[in-house]
Structure formats: C-alpha cells, structure tokens
C-alpha cells in the first residue's frame, strides 16, 4: 500500500530547477530497511554532474545575494508552510526509506518545519554590529556576507532535519547550495527539491546531486568554486574531508558522532531516568549521533536501575515503523547490522555481562528487514571498546561509579563530546555537571537526545571541528564577516596614526 507514495522508478539530479539525468548510467537501489523491498533507484553521479550543478549555482547565487534578505526569507516561510501541509506524506516516505518509526519520522519532519520558520525569521535579523570607530567622523560596522556556493553532505539517519539545518541558513544568508544526500535516503531530497520549486526558490539556488561520497562528495570537496563544505556523517569520512579542505583552505564544518552517556546519581528519580535512558538509547534503534550508549550509574542504585531497564526493554515492540504500535524500527542496512553484531561479540570477549538482546531478529516478518534486539550490557569497564567506540545501534553499556567526580571523569574520557545527561535532584550536582561535562550539549533530568533547532548543535573533541549546526551558530558556517568603514570627514585619516 505504502509503495504508492513512491511514484518514480528512478531519481534524477536537480540542477538549475530541472530534473536532469546523471552523465553516467549508474544507479543504486534504495531499499526499505523494514522489509527489504526496493523503493527506487538513485543515480550514482560523477564529477561532471557536480561541475554542471556548480555552474548553475554560481550564476544563481550572484542574483540571489542581491535579493533583500527579508524576501529571501519569504521563500523559506513558504517552504515551512508546504512542509507543514505535507508533514504526513513526508513522514511516511521518511519511515520507508530510513526505517525510523512513524512517530519519530513526524518528529524529524517537524524539526525541519521549525528550522524553516526560525531561519526565515533571520531574514529580518542577520545581525551584524555597529561599533565606534577610533577616528572622528568615521563610521564602523561588521556585517554578514554570503560565502557563495556552499556544499552540504547529509547523512541517512536524519535525512530531512539535518538538510534543513544546513540548507536553510545557507539560503537565507544569500548562498547557493549543492546538496549531496546519502544514497540510502534520497527521497527526502527529491521531496524537498519539489517543495523549493513550489515555494518559488529561484532556479539554481539549491541543486541536488545524488551519488557516493567517493565520487560526488570528493568532487564537491575539490571543486574550487565550492567555498564551504558542511558535513554530517562518520568520523573517518569527516577526517578525510577535513584533510582535503585544509589543503585547499576551504571552510569546513563537521559533525561526526558521539559516545553519549546518561549519568544516574543515587538521588535520581529512577522512574524518570529509566524513561530517559530507554528513549535515548533505543529510540531510532540507537542510530542517532546523540543516542545514549553508556549509562554511568552510582553503584548504590545500579541493580535497581538494571531491573527497571530490563522490564522496560521487554515492552519495546519492534517492527516496521509504519505500524503505529512499533516503538523500535530496523537498522539501516545489512552492513549496519553486522557492525552491531561485531560490537556485541567484542563486548562479550571483553568480559562485559550481557543482560538483554545481543542478536539480530529474524522471526516472522522481521526476517525480511534488518532488525536488532535492544541490547543491554552491564559491568562494563570505562576502557572497554564497547564503552569507547560509536556503535550506532541499540546497544547500551552500564558502567558503575562511586561518585559524581568519577562519573564526570568517565563521561569525559572518550574521543567524542556531543551530548551528555545527568539525573539528579541536587542543584549543586546539576550546576557542577553542566559546567564540567565536556560535551556540546548537556541535559539535566532528560535523556541525551532531543536537541531543539534554535540552539547550537555540535560537540567537542572527535565530534567535530568547532562549528555548530542549527541555531544562530549555523550562520557562522555560511557567512563571511565583512568589516565596513565609512569615513565622512572629507580628509585622509590614517588609523592608528592620526588618532589624537
Ligand atoms: C543526529 O543524530 O545526527 O537531538 C541528529 C536529537 C535530534 C537530532 C539528532 N534532534 O536527537
């Protein structure tokens, strides 16, 4: 029934407002991870296609930058309204291509709608600064200027929300965009391109080139007319991109995962902590950068917490995300499933104790898709690989500690720094933790997921390279600061020299 939502057989690139076939006749199948059914074919484009898109974008950007920002924002308002009208349609397609359960798909589409209205508001802000000049009869200000043509590379786990975090600030600031979506989830880009057209975005301001990272991604990184690369994805790919952009002196913004922990103190409301942990560890089958994969628990409440977690895990219904009853959907693909299996094996070899799950699920209809049982390890030591490395699946490790200082130390002693959380009722512990947890996002009495779009999203250490997605901070990625001095004295005034 749901396949009726996907009407095309093959996707085309979206260049200069038109659907254009890729230069080479190579395609990859897009598969519904819930049941293995093929949804559509996605083109595997080449450098030539990127060149064509950049050419169109460069031309369009010159005009677009001259449109007053409040008018640019009008387009984003319209994009937001169309997304709102089409929320259910988009959510269902998102569930089909990505697997996440429909309630979460709706949440993700909502995140994109929120971003549209928030960034549209920037059309009447885009604040710079006015500041005194050091000389008489001289005016000084700084303003945000568009960078030009920007490249965005988006992942399969949040194919619409993350694309909006990156493309909307770029658009409102007067840039043109080349967008390479993940080949696993191209339908969201196809749907968004149609929405851009309907909203009246001029041709060439957003261009979509489908294809692999090694071909399309590389061509984008290396293209001299693409001035910014904004990437969300794996640590390995991010580092490669960073290296190339470094050589080319290209601005690059990277978001690359986490090893996020929930800390549970002895005074925590355990019922609440259990809910927060279950939601952030097993929601989206653990396939979020922000997913909780460690629970750092005060040893005095460890057993109670384990019991309650196990009881809740028992209630998690697993299956096709289009069925409203299901709480946990599939893993994105076979490779994802195998990686999770490998980590479970590593955990067992390292001596962690498996309390729940640990296996792929094959009974009945689940056999057709890629499902993994919600998995819980306990007695995990902070230096075990399952406690250090990103698994990107529903695998949670419980690490007992003696006090808050040790909890913070364990939290911080990993290569990532995206999100963290603490459950406690002690105000002193709250303030100490929010200061000392070395992550870009900290939650108090909530799990590690659920960032809101008007705040900066990103993290420390191996999570990124200091930039942030969404929020005001996203504008820093897609604009250049320009300092403007206006001397109205009518004579030559030399800064630093003619100062009285
Ligand atoms: C991601 O997993 O890369 O904070 C994005 C959250 C969501 C976004 C996750 N709002 O969990």
UniProtKB/TrEMBL annotation:
What exactly does this protein do?
Part of the sulfo-TAL (or sulfo-SFT) pathway, a D-sulfoquinovose degradation pathway that produces sulfolactate (SL). Catalyzes the oxidation of 3-sulfolactaldehyde (SLA) to sulfolactate (SL).
**Residue intervals of the Aldehyde dehydrogenase domain:** 19-484
SUPFAM superfamilies tied to this protein: ALDH-like (SSF53720)
Residues of the active site are: 255
Q: Which family does it belong to?
A: Belongs to the aldehyde dehydrogenase family.
Q: Which GO terms describe its molecular function?
A: aldehyde dehydrogenase (NAD+) activity
UniProt keyword Oxidoreductase present: yes
Please verify whether the record's keywords include Oxidoreductase.
yes
Subunit structure, as described in the record: Homotetramer.
Q: Which reaction does it catalyse?
A: (2S)-3-sulfolactaldehyde + NAD(+) + H2O = (2S)-3-sulfolactate + NADH + 2 H(+)
Query: What's the source species for this entry?
Result: Piscibacillus halophilus
Which class of enzymes does this protein belong to? oxidoreductase
Q: Which UniProt keywords apply?
A: NAD, Oxidoreductase
EC number(s) for this protein? 1.2.1.3, 1.2.1.97
**Name listed for the protein in its UniProt record:** 3-sulfolactaldehyde dehydrogenase
Q: Name one Pfam family in it.
A: Aldedh
């Amino acid at each position: 029934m749901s396949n009726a939502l996907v009407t095309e057989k093959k996707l085309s690139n979206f260049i200069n407002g038109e659907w254009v076939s890729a230069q080479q006749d190579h395609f990859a199948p897009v598969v519904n991870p819930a049941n293995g059914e093929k949804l559509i074919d996605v083109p595997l484009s080449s450098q030539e296609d990127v060149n064509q898109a950049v050419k169109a974008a460069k031309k369009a950007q010159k005009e677009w930058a001259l449109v007053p920002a409040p008018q640019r924002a009008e387009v984003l308002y319209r994009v937001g309204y169309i997304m709102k009208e089409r929320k259910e349609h988009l959510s269902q397609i998102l569930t089909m291509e990505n697997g996440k359960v429909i309630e979460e798909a709706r949440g993700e589409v909502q995140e994109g709608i929120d971003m549209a209205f928030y960034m549209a508001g920037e059309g009447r802000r885009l604040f710079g600064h006015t500041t005194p000049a050091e000389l008489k009869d001289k005016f000084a200000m700084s303003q945000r200027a568009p960078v030009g043509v920007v490249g965005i590379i988006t992942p399969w786990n949040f194919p619409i929300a993350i694309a909006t975090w990156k493309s909307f600030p770029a658009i409102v600031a007067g840039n043109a965009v080349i967008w390479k979506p993940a080949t696993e989830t191209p339908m969201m880009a196809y749907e968004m391109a149609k929405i851009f057209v309907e909203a009246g975005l001029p041709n060439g301001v957003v261009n979509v080139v489908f294809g692999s990272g090694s071909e399309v991604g590389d061509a984008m990184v290396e293209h001299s007319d693409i001035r910014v690369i904004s990437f969300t994805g794996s640590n390995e790919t991010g580092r490669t991109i960073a290296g190339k952009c470094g050589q080319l002196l290209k601005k690059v913004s990277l978001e690359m995962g986490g090893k996020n922990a929930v800390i549970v103190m002895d005074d925590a409301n355990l019922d609440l902590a259990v809910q927060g942990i279950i939601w952030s560890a097993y929601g989206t089958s653990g396939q979020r950068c922000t997913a909780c994969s460690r629970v750092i628990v005060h040893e005095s409440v460890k057993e109670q917490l384990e019991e309650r977690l196990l009881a809740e895990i028992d209630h998690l219904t697993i299956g096709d995300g289009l069925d409203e009853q299901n709480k946990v959907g599939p893993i994105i693909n076979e490779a994802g499933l195998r990686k999770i299996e490998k980590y479970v094996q590593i955990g067992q070899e390292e001596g962690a104790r498996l309390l729940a799950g640990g296996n792929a699920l094959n009974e009945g209809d689940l056999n057709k898709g890629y499902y993994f049982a919600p998995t819980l390890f306990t007695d995990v030591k902070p230096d075990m690989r399952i406690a250090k490395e990103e698994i990107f699946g529903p695998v949670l490790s419980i690490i007992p500690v003696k006090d808050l200082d040790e909890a913070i130390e364990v939290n911080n002693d990993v290569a990532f720094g995206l999100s963290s959380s603490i459950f406690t009722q002690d105000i002193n512990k709250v303030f100490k933790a929010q200061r000392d947890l070395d992550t870009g996002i900290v939650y108090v009495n909530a799990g590690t997921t659920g960032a809101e779009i008007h705040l900066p999203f990103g993290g420390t250490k191996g999570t990124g390279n200091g930039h942030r997605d969404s929020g005001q901070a996203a504008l820093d990625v897609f604009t250049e600061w320009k300092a403007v001095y206006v001397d109205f004295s009518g004579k030559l005034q030399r800064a630093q020299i003619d100062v009285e």
